[in-house]
């Protein structure tokens, strides 16, 4: 048995064991969750030899605070909040010195159904998958295909689509389309499989177009504004637009940022926004 | 006759699960709060023998078969390691 090396397990081993740790916490505390991506992906849906660098779980939203308490009871520390974790405010990250990152999702980008209902839909066909020799609940094959395609769309296209969609039989693709419709994820699915132009009039079209094809931050904010439903959501978006993401700055620096560093980053963001806007005005 | 098996609250992976290198390696932990433990080489071979469960004689025989060794050559070392694994409660006795 090795002492010092105990803290140096390769990432793939850490991720497998971390899934098992999170599952044990879920069982001990009566938490409903599904393991996603990485070793949770069913055979045939992921290229051989690919490994994740973190653990992704989807938790029943009503059980979120129980999961946070359980994670923090064994040493995980929250590093990003749901507000700062992503555009969709759907996930937050926790770090553990032995087990690395856990991304806790309360919803999945692209799914517009109420998060609690969406969890029920995704959990309906769940199956057990052995990870680190422990049974972990994972979404069924159809839901996994959809999750991988939506993730690919959100990430500007990944190799996952080939196995998850292109190589699926037509009837399997139909199952995925029906599930996407039930989850209100039609537009995101279309973005992932090259059919986004069929949804040009959807309020989220510009946002998915941005994810798939890229563009400036100006384009991104315009797209996010178009996708935001209601005056309150638009107002919140506006106020957060120029705010420095302290969580990401902390991860970048490897320590909590000082007030001066936050201010310097704020100036940089404003300058960049002004620069992009001036560039657009010059071109128009 | 005492039988040995991996404890109920242990998670583990071997290099085979990870498409890893040639050196037998297993990573394990007690759930949910245990530290990661690394078993390399002959330690991993004993762990893999333990994963099937059995008496000390059966585990020594399985480890010998996996490592192209004789029972006589490895029995003392295997017994000592199994005792250590029991002491840190990653292996249970029935």
Automatic annotation (TrEMBL), chain A:
One of its GO terms (molecular function) is transferase activity. This is Uncharacterized nucleotidyltransferase. Keywords: Transferase. InterPro entries: NTP_transf_5.
TrEMBL record, chain B:
It holds the Pfam family PqqD. This is Coenzyme PQQ synthesis protein D (PqqD). It comes from the Bacteria. InterPro entries: PQQD, PqqD_sf. The lineage of its organism: Bacteria, Bacillati, Actinomycetota, Actinomycetes, Propionibacteriales.
């Amino acid at each position: 048995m090795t002492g010092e090396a105990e803290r140096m397990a390769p990432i793939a081993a850490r991720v497998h064991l971390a899934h098992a740790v999170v599952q044990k916490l879920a069982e001990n505390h009566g938490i409903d969750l599904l393991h996603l991506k990485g070793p949770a992906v069913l055979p045939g849906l992921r290229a051989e030899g690919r490994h994740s660098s973190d653990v992704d779980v989807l938790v029943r939203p009503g059980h979120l605070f129980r999961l946070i308490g359980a994670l923090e009871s064994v040493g995980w520390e929250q590093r990003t909040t749901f507000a700062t974790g992503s555009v969709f405010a759907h996930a937050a990250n926790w770090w553990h010195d032995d087990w690395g990152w856990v991304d806790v999702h309360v919803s999945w980008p692209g799914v517009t159904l109420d998060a609690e209902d969406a969890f029920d839909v995704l959990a309906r066909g769940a199956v057990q998958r052995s990870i680190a020799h422990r049974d972990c609940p994972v979404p069924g094959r159809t839901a996994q295909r959809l999750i991988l395609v939506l993730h690919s769309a959100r990430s500007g296209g990944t190799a996952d689509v080939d196995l998850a969609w292109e190589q699926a039989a037509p009837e399997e693709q139909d199952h995925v389309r029906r599930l996407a419709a039930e989850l209100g994820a039609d537009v995101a699915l279309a973005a992932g499989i090259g059919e986004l132009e069929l949804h040009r009039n959807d309020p989220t079209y510009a946002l998915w177009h941005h994810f798939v094809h890229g563009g400036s931050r100006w384009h991104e904010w315009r797209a996010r504004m178009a996708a935001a439903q209601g005056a309150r959501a638009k107002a919140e978006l506006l106020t957060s637009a120029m705010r420095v993401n302290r969580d990401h700055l902390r991860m970048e620096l490897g320590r909590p940022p000082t007030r001066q560093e936050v201010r310097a980053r704020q100036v940089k963001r404003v300058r960049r926004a002004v620069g992009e806007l001036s560039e657009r005005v010059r071109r128009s | 006759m005492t039988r040995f098996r991996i404890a109920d609250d242990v998670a583990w992976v071997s290099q085979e699960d990870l498409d890893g290198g040639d050196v037998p390696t297993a990573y394990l932990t007690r759930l949910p709060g245990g530290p990661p433990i690394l078993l390399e080489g002959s330690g991993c071979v004993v762990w893999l023998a333990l994963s099937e469960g059995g008496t000390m004689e059966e585990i020594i025989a399985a480890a010998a078969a996996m490592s192209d060794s004789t029972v006589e050559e490895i029995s003392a070392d295997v017994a000592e390691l199994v005792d250590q694994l029991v002491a840190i409660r990653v292996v249970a006795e029935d």
